[in-house]
Amino acid sequence: MLLTLLGSSALIALPAVAEPKFEQMEALKGKDYGKVRTKYPDYVLTDSGLQYKDLRDGSGDAVSNGSHVTVDWDGYTLGYYGRPFEARNKSKGGAFVGDSKDFLRFTVGDHSVIPAFEEAMVGMRVGGVRRLIVPQELGYPGQPPDFTKQGPTPGNFSGRRALDFVLKNQGLIDKTLLFDIELMRVN
């Protein structure tokens, strides 16, 4: 873009401003406005749009594609009041039976978990804790998104209900999710 200074014939070239990336919201589909995607300055932003931050560095074996991993995880509806739908090794909400949940076990690269988990696991070391900010396109698959098709899946009714409400809502709900994952074991 060129700008003529007041009464001067000098022209100044201004840098082009990047178009803001909007969160996907069904009610605003095709519009040129919406909720601008947040970039958190202390997080690593990958080419896919995943943002992550290591809360604790691990010291054990590193994860690579094809590794069998065991993780503990928390999940929050970051784009909808930050409500937890799964809490670390504890039942929350309406789960009245039991006081712990099973760890999540999967093979990196087998597509049994959401793409954000696959991407975030590579390079982690046992004992490490990583916080993920997951945009809708790296979260649960489908239109509307369905958490029953890929893991991780909330372990109790309240968590499933809260996550289902956010993912299937066709209104103005931001479907950005936040996960804390702790790598327990690599096989």
List the helices and strands in order: EEEEEEEHEHE
The count of strands amounts to 9
Please state roughly what percent of the residues sit in beta strands, choosing from under 5%, 5-15%, 15-25%, 25-35%, 35-45% or over 45%: 25-35%
State the end-to-end distance.
Answer: 55 Å
Treating each run of at least 4 consecutive H or I residues as one helix, how many helices? 2
Please outline the major beta sheet: 7 strands, antiparallel
Q: Which structural category fits the helices and strands?
A: mainly beta
Low-confidence region ranges:
1-9, 14-20, 92-98
- Overall, the morphology is globular
The radius of gyration is: 20 Å
Question: Could you walk me through the main structural features you see in this protein, from its secondary elements to its overall organization?
Answer:
With 187 residues, this protein is mainly beta. Helix content is 10%, strand content 26%. It is built from two helices and nine strands. The strands form two sheets. Strands 3, 4, 5, 6, 7, 8 and 9 form a seven-stranded antiparallel sheet that branches. A two-stranded antiparallel sheet has the order 1-2. The longest helix is centred in the last third of the chain and has 12 residues, at 157-168. The termini are far apart. Mean pLDDT is 82; it is low at 1-9, 14-20 and 92-98.
Short description:
The protein is mostly beta strands. The protein is 10% helix and 26% strand. Strands 3, 4, 5, 6, 7, 8 and 9 form a seven-stranded antiparallel β-sheet that branches. Strands 1-2 form a two-stranded antiparallel sheet.
